[in-house]
Amino acid sequence: MNRLKTLAQKIFTIRGILVFLLILAVLFAGFSIYYKVTYWGFSLAPQKNTDLWAVEAHISFMPTGEPIEVKLTTPRSNRAFKILEENVIAPGYNVKHNKSGSQLVLTSPAQEKEQDIYYKIMLFDNIATRGKTRAPRPQAPEKPMFDEQRLAAARQILQLAEKQNGDTVAQIIALLNQNPLDPAVQAYLPVNRTQTQTLEIISELLALKGIASRAARGFKLEESKKSLAPDLMLEAYLNGSWKIYNLQTGKKGLPDNFILFQRGGKALIDVMGGENSVIKFSILKSVTSTMNLAKRRAKLEGSAMWFENSIYNLPLTEQNTLKWLSIFPLAILIIVFIRNVIGMQTMGTFTPMLLSMALLKTGFGAGLLCFGLIVALGLFIRFLMSRLNLLLVPRIGAVVVFVILIMQVLTVLGYQLQWQAALSAVFFPIIIMAWIIERASITWEEDGPQNAGKEIFCSLFAAVAVYFVISSEYIRHIMFAFNELNLVILLLVMLLGTYTGYRLLELKRFKPLAKE
User: Which of 25-29, 128-132, 154-158, 229-233 has the highest mean pLDDT?
Assistant: First the structure.
């Protein structure tokens, strides 16, 4: 019983509880970061942009005087691209999707004039899952109805294809695109064959081997392209997934920025009640930041409520303010580490953090120079005032006034002499500078100039350490985009608060005791 009690006391200590909470915070932050990157499109790099593609299809035809029905095969959100918006401009038409969502069906009573229908979608690349197009196994293809002569020729072509490189599909495509063609292949193919005929022949040959295949139509997303005709490609079911092939090269896989409008079927568009139908595509590219697109991504993923109640849905002014606030916990962690683990004595706990913020405004070199001038002049004036025997509050108030005057003089001189470093003096926090001067002068009087200089140096060292962390745009972006990291920092700060061992700078001081 006593052992269990002792074990419980060891586990349920303040440090033990904080370690447990820290583990939970790390797990929560890790999951949250994964979710934001995967589903909201957040990135670890600042100012990351996402390409938005506007694809417009223009359908035109002449009515025949009968009721009109137009079927347009449309892309669906898939593992390569996601659809952001979808619009149809077709006055007088009833618009709906078929049950599978793969076709847009437009119906209208009989019309007389030439018809123009516009279909427009906004797409963004779904890079995280590109190429993962696994699907259930399709039914075995029906064997083509060949006579004995053509069947023998097809089998001969399949034997010749086996000598080519690649898988079965790539071998057949390579054989049919040889230059010059093998005589047996040339006799099998029609004269002046089209791409559609080539695809049908390849599908027949694959069916003989029991491989399912289908047509795929789409086009490469390139900026400012107009009057595009979709490219025809072949998809074949191999090794448990659909694989897509280029009919000219036999290369496997989708090209970069390629959107598929149709999978299967014979035609991209089918018009009843009309003739001479033409479909033309145009593409326009725009660029937006991943943060601006995050709200729409969240809506597509069904987590819009979480996004709308987060800091990322605030106006940009408030977001910029919170971006600076989100970096403070990391700066606090650095200061706590410097004081409690390294053992440096700074002037106040968070004075270095405020100084580092001032250095961000002034620039590193100019800020250090202004800091040195203000402190040196302030100490000189403070020593002159010490002979007046003023009370504490009036004395500090007078120091604040002198610091303001020093800043004004430095700013005027900097402007007259075109010295940018002196112009930066106005960015230093006045009260903090006055406090440093007052604190340094008291330490000088009580403990000597060496200790006063040591405190100023340690404060400046801590400020510089914080500056190099918070001046990184990457770190500022990460701390804002993934603000759940502040929970981890909070628990780390609390854990450092339980540290009661030697500071690093104290090891030399207590070294003789360790020997004894």
Answer: 25-29
**Helix 430-447 / helix 392-416 crossing angle, nearest 10 deg:** 120
Q: How far is CA 22 from CA 33, 364, 487, 494, in A?
A: 16, 35, 8, 10
Phi/psi for 507 (5° steps) reads: -65, -40
CA dihedral 253, 257, 262, 263 (to 10 degrees): 20
**Angle between helical axes of 195-208 and 148-161 (0-180°, round to 10):** 90
User: C-alpha angle 29/31/37, rounded to 5°?
Assistant: 100
Helices (H), 264-391: 290-300, 304-308, 316-325, 328-337, 351-362, 364-385
15 secondary structure, DSSP code: H
Q: Is it the case that residue 140 has pLDDT exceeding 70?
A: yes
User: Would the CA dihedral through 413, 418, 421, 425 be positive or negative?
Assistant: positive
Structure tokens at 184: 């047996």
Residues in the chain: 516
Structure token pair of residue 4: 């269990």
**Sign of the C-alpha dihedral, residues 200, 205, 208, 210?**
negative
Q: Which two tokens stand for residue 363?
A: 């620039």
Residue 132 has what pLDDT? 43
Q: Where are the beta strands (DSSP E) in 74-224?
A: 81-89, 94-97, 103-108, 115-125, 213-220
Residue 512: pLDDT over 70: no
Contact 328, 354 (CB under 8 A): no
Q: Which residues contact 342 (CB under 8 A, 6 or more apart)?
A: 503, 504, 505
The confidence score (pLDDT) of residue 426 equals: 56
Token readout for 446 is 């009580």
471-487 pLDDT, tens digit each: 888 888 888 888 889 99
Largest CA distance in the chain: 120
151 CB-side CA count, 13 A: 8
Q: pLDDT at residue 275 above 50?
A: yes
